[in-house]
Amino acid sequence: MRVMTILAASVWLLAGSAFAQDAAPTAEVDDSKAWFESSSVLTQKTGQGVYNAICASCHMPEGEGAVGAGAYPALANNEMLEFPDYAVYLIVHGSGAMPPLGGVLNDQQIADVVNYIRTHFGNDYPDEPATAEMVADTR
Amino acid sequence: MDVDENKNPTRREFLSMVGAVGGAAVMYQAMGMMGLAQASPYSGPIKLDDAPAGTKVLVLGAGIAGMVAAMELRDAGYEVEVLEYRGVAGGRCWTLRAGDTYEELGGAVQKVDFAEGNYFNPGPWRVPYNHYGILDYCRRLDVELEALIQINNMAYVHSTKAFDGKPVRYREINSDFRGHISDLLSKVTNQGALDDVLSEEDKANLLAGLRTFGALNSDNQYVSGNAASGRRGYERPPGGGVDGAPIANEVLDVSTLLSSGLWSRLATSESLNSSMPIFQPKGGMDMIARAMAANLGDLVKYEKRVTQIRQDETGVTVVYEDMANDGAEVTTAADYAVCTIPFSILSQIDHDFSGPLSSVISTMSYNTSIKVGLEFNRRFWEEDEHIYGGTTYTDLPISQISYPSNDYLSKKPGVLLGAYSWGATAYQFSSMPPEERVSRALEYGSQIHPQMTEEFKAGVAVAWHRVPWTLGCYGAWQDKDAQYADGVAMDRRIVCAGEHLSYLPAWMEGAVLSSLDAIGRLHQAATGNAGN
Ligand SMILES: Cc1cc2nc3c(=O)[nH]c(=O)nc-3n(C[C@H](O)[C@H](O)[C@H](O)COP(=O)(O)OP(=O)(O)OC[C@H]3O[C@@H](n4cnc5c(N)ncnc54)[C@H](O)[C@@H]3O)c2cc1C
Asked: How far does Cα B279 stand from its chain's mean position?
């Protein structure tokens, strides 16, 4: 599943480069320089960038989760992600050990990262993508 | 930790500081009152009358709260059994020493490659003088304390947006800020702007006060010269022989000072919980935990992971995974229990707490925090920069550098706190592998101390959301005012305790006070039920 996603992404990138002159700027967003830009919010602009800068701290880089005296659930192959609402709600409001992140992420970042998680780590839920409006309504 | 320690400078803060100087008498009075109101309410060792015969209490978790409960209940005559997940006691009261290894969630293992005898406190590192409870346990258990330097005039304040990113000595900013506001206030006083509120005599006293407070000259001006340099330092300090006469250095002009924003750091260590005197246990913070654990001896059962908590009218039953015995599932029972397991973990444990308490447990999140300890071959901050202990504050992601308040002048490698951050910054540090946290801390730190690059020896980075036995730094309530009573209430035979159930969160004192209050109520219930 993972391989397919990566393949799909690179095909799309190739197609994008053919129209490099008028390609949408989002295709070139580079979040590698966004680390620590602000001390109060995250400034990453892609779902992947947001994931790597905040979600990975507990759900781990490959979405595998972790277990100690308590556990962080794996996001990989997680059926709870079939619909975007649950993830959006948890990110905005938190629950249990999961802190509310609505203060450090904006609506678009939350929508992007939800869509990223729902289409990576063995998850294949490209339908009904989360939107910034959906996040705003959840706040 | 002080939760609001890390605020950004605002104009209001500046004005309120000026106001505070203008109204010194009022300010002193207010501070005195705050002192009375905020000092720890600890009033000496708890006195529990005799426990009902044959009554057993289970204590879940052997952090400060759990061990305080266990020691006191044992002394009152209860049979006590403590269940602890880790192989050592202390919980967040924890020290990493040369040779230790630490595996965080996700599996990254760090070996602490420090020189013999060196250590790092990844969690608590300071014990303020007004935390009477934890200090009393140090006294009773013979834990040796030494002074921790919080504020050091020779340390730096630093902003990437001021003075071309060069650090400035705390002493210079402090002297210049006090000097300039004293100068300005003297001017408006002499111009009659305060005539409605001050008598002639008040004005004379105020001006005299401002001259000493601000190191003003006899014309009430803050200018370059020996008066100012006596505070902020000299171009050439007073010496002996031919060139003995000092040369004053230049004070910052008021506008440069104000626009630097560096004044925002000046009150950082004035709050009751972080002002001097403030202590650290000699040899590492966990000396407190070790002393408590030694006192409890084999009452603490290690490597026991609590997985289920149940109670009925007759008692409490707890199931745990015995990690010391191939993960065997063991059931133990008692008449009562004190549960000090952080709610981040308790919310995942199968329990039958009442609805209101369950709701507090499942809605408390845990804040993020990151600390990086860096060891250097040479104590360059002392040798090159004359900084002995204390803290440098910066707007870099590392937020502060704290220099060791022990082994001054020693020629062996020294360990400093190279990063201590919260919020958005800490999330990002936590998301990186430990080696990268260390290399980032070094990269940022070397903007203040270029020697770091050359002298680096070893580092260790603890991201609190990846600590397997707390899943976070400290408890954050969803709505503390509304939920507090439900969180602390004894639920039939079980009472919860810990830093999260106090108004001193993220302090060991909060864990002590919460625990003493909880066992006082447990004892009352136990003696009441026994018909004593
Ligand atoms: C970065 C940081 C800086 C701090 N700075 C300071 C400071 O300078 N001064 C100060 O006074 N305080 C400071 N604190 C706060 C202080 O560390 C805490 O308030 C205090 O140690 C909490 O004690 P506790 O007993 O409530 O919880 P803990 O110490 O967390 O104890 C809980 C215990 O329960 C155990 N446990 C967890 N799950 C299970 C399970 N399933 N089964 C069995 N056992 C389990 C844990 O292993 C742990 O031992 C700091 C904390 C942090 C994180």
From this structure: 11
- Name residue, tokens 């409006």: A133
Instruction: Please indicate whether, in this complex, the C-beta atoms of A39 and B8 are within 8 angstroms of each other.
Output: yes
Q: Which atom of ligand 1 is nearest to the CA of B90?
A: 49
Interface of B with A (CB under 8 A): 6, 8, 85, 105-107, 305, 341, 344-345, 347-348, 362-363, 365-368, 395, 397, 399, 421, 423-425, 427-428, 430-431, 463, 465-472, 476
Rounded Cα gap, residues B284 and B280, in angstroms? 7
User: In this structure, what CATH number is given to the domain that contains residue B500?
Assistant: 3.50.50.60
B409 vs B4, higher pLDDT: B409
Question: How many folded domains does chain A comprise?
Answer: 1
Using one digit for the tens of pLDDT, what is the confidence trace for B208-262? 999 999 999 999 999 999 999 999 999 999 999 999 999 999 999 999 999 999 9
CA of B266 to the centre of ligand 1 (A): 29
B8 assigned to some structural domain? no
C-alpha distance from A57 to closest chain B C-alpha (Å): 4
Contact at 8 Å (CB) between A113 and A51? yes
Residue B390 Ramachandran class (φ > 0 left, ψ -120 to 50 alpha, else beta): left
* Nearest protein Cα to ligand 1, atom 13: B124
Task: Give ∠ CA B64-B88-B497 in degrees, rounded to 5.
Answer: 25
So what's the pLDDT on residue A28? 67
Which of the listed residues B466, B488, B517 is the one where a domain comes to its end?
B466
Instruction: Tell me how far the alpha carbon of residue B177 is from its chain's centroid.
Output: 27
In-domain check, residue B104? yes
Residue A91 forms part of a structural domain: yes
Do B62 and B117 have their domain in common?
A: no
Which DSSP symbol is given to A52? I
Q: Would you place residue B532 in the very low, low, confident or very high pLDDT band (cuts 50, 70, 90)?
A: low
Question: Which pLDDT band holds residue B273 (cuts at 50, 70, 90)?
Answer: confident
Same domain, B438 and B307: no
Residues B440-486 have pLDDT tens digits of 999 999 999 999 999 999 999 999 999 999 999 999 999 999 999 99
Residue B210 placed within a domain: yes
B388 and B452 part of one domain: yes
- Answer yes or no: is B10 within a domain: no
CA distance B512 to chain A (A): 22
**Cβ of A68 and B105 within 8 Å?**
yes
User: What is the tally of structural domains in chain B?
Assistant: 3
The residue type of B56 is K
pLDDT, tens digit (0-9, with 9 covering 90-100), for B184-214:
999 999 999 999 999 999 999 999 999 999 9
What is the domain range of residue A85? 30-138
B527: tokens are 């003696």
Residue A13 inside a domain? The answer is: no
CB of B300 within 6 A of ligand 1: the answer is: no
Asked if B472 and A99 come within 8 Å (Cβ–Cβ), the reply is yes
Residue B203's domain spans which residues?
A: 170-260
Both tokens assigned to B431: 């998301």
With respect to residue A8, please indicate whether it lies within any of the assigned structural domains. Answer: no
All residues of chain B having their beta carbon less than 8 Å from the beta carbon of residue A100 are 365
Which is the closest atom of ligand 1 to the Cα of B507? 12
Residue positions counted in chain A:
139
B306 CB within 6 A, ligand 1: yes
